[in-house]
C-alpha cells in the first residue's frame, strides 16, 4: 500500500522535473493523517501526509488525483515561493500543465462519521432533553453547572446516554 503511494509520488516528481527541466527536493511521506482530509502538504517541512483510510477506500483516484494534488503544492512552493495562494494560478498551472489533471480543490470521497455518545441532561421545569458532549459532561462532573434558559434551573444528568 505505502509502496504504491511512494511510487506515485516519485512519478509526479519525475514528471515535474521533465516539465520544468530542473530537480526538486523529495519530501518525507507519511501515512499519519485522519479525519476528512485526504492529504496535506507541509510546505516548510517538505512533508506530505496522507489519510490511509481514504486511500484504502478510493485507491485508484487517490493515487491519480490526490497524490498529484499534494505534490503540486510542494512543487509550486519550491518554484514560486511562499506568497502564492494554496490553490492559485501557479498550483493550477502544475495540475493542468504537468499532470494534465483537473485542479480540484477538494476530494469527493465518502467520509464515514464516527459515532458520538451524548449524555442526556434534563430541565427541572419541563423535563426537556439536553444532549451533552463527553467534554461538557466531564465538566459537569468536575463541578460546572449549566442552566435552563427558560427557568434558570440547573440541568441534571438523567443517567441516559445516546449514540449518534
UniProtKB/TrEMBL annotation:
Requisite cofactors: Zn(2+)
Positions bound to Zn(2+): 69, 73
Top-level taxon of the source organism: Bacteria
Molecular-function GO terms, alphabetical: zinc ion binding
GO BP terms in the entry: response to stress
Main location: cytoplasm
Keyword Protease (UniProt): no
Xref: InterPro entries: SprT-like_domain (IPR006640), Uncharacterised_SprT (IPR023483)
Chain coiled-coil ranges: none
Species this chain originates from: Pseudomonas fluorescens
GO cellular component: cytoplasm
Active site annotation, chain numbering: 70
Gene: sprT
Record's cofactor remark: Binds 1 zinc ion.
Protein name listed in UniProt: Protein SprT
Domain SprT-like as annotated: residue spans: 7-158
Family statement drawn from the similarity comment of this UniProt entry: Belongs to the SprT family.
Keywords, comma-separated and alphabetical: Cytoplasm, Metal-binding, Zinc
Pfam families noted in UniProt: SprT-like
UniProt-annotated location(s): Cytoplasm
Record-linked NCBIfam families: PRK04860.1
